[in-house]
Amino acid sequence: MNHQRVAGGFLPVALLILLWTGVPAQQRMPREEGNFKPPDLVELIKMDPTIKLDIRYAKSTNFLGKPVYKEERAFLQRPAAEALLKAHRKLMEKGYGLLIFDGYRPWAVTKIFWDETPPDKHMFVANPAKGSKHNRGCAVDLSIYDLKTGKEIEMPSGYDEFTERAFPTYKGGTDEQRRLRDMLRSSIEAEGFTVDGNEWWHFDYKDWQSYQVLNISFDQIGKAEPERKIRPRQ
Fold it and tell me: What pLDDT digit, counting tens, does each position of 144-165 carry?
């Protein structure tokens, strides 16, 4: 999300300690009841190194002006990751590859985004009281890049733009921008994802309700239990 930069760009000390030490915070996380699948987060570039990363929240190119991730990595729950890999390989046949902006997002980061976003822009961010699909490892922000040049493809809006240009149904921009945006959408939705109504780059996986909201840091993923070897379906 491309929010207005906060004056000074500083986070509360407690949150900086949380994020940079990798210690997950538990304050006010949503309480959930039900039978959930155990988390099985896998790293996207380990599935296929031709998937490119541009993790904006690991850089200063975000609304805080400072990184909120200490590592530039992207994870999804295994079924979502395998579905995304299918879409990536089909796009490669057309000369394009996936460019990932964000995947699994710890709950503490969602809370920071909500707290630092003006109320009139809250429609563009997830409410931490409920948690987000990113927090469940079942949402991904992405675009495409040209396999020949390695350059990101131009879309009708930039990533995280809080305007109508970000809508997946926006009629402005050039014919080529809309064509590529729509090609991206159809390619990802064909594998079980649904585009967000406000953001052409945001896709939710169909099985998101099967997973709980998580608040584990990237460096802790896979340490609770050995990560299985990734064997995507052909």
Answer: 999 999 999 999 999 988 899 9
Instruction: Please name the residue that has the structure tokens 């994020």.
Output: 19
Q: Is residue 2 one of the residues assigned to a domain?
A: no
CA distances (Å), origin 82, targets 46, 107, 225 = 11, 23, 20
Using DSSP's 3-state secondary structure scheme, residue 2 falls into strand
CA dihedral 31, 224, 100, 202 (to 10 degrees): -20
Beta-strand pair 52-53/96-102:
parallel
Give the pLDDT band (50/70/90) at residue 116.
confident
Q: Is 225 a catalytic residue?
A: no
125 located within any domain: yes
Round the CA-based radius of gyration of the chain to a whole number and report it.
17
Domain count, the chain: 1
Residue 234 is assigned to a structural domain of this protein: no
Q: Which residues, other chains included, contact 12 with Cβ-Cβ below 8 Å and sequence gap of 6+?
A: none
19 vs 46, 75, 95, 129, 183, CA distance in Å? 24, 17, 37, 19, 36
Q: Hey, what are 14's tokens?
A: 């407690």
97 three-state secondary structure = strand
Q: How far apart are CA 164 and CA 170, in angstroms?
A: 7
> What is the DSSP-derived secondary structure letter of residue 150?
-
The catalytic position among 164, 199, 225, 227 is: 199
pTM over 0.90: no
CA 10 to chain centre: 23
Quickly tell me which residue has 């002006």 as its tokens.
65
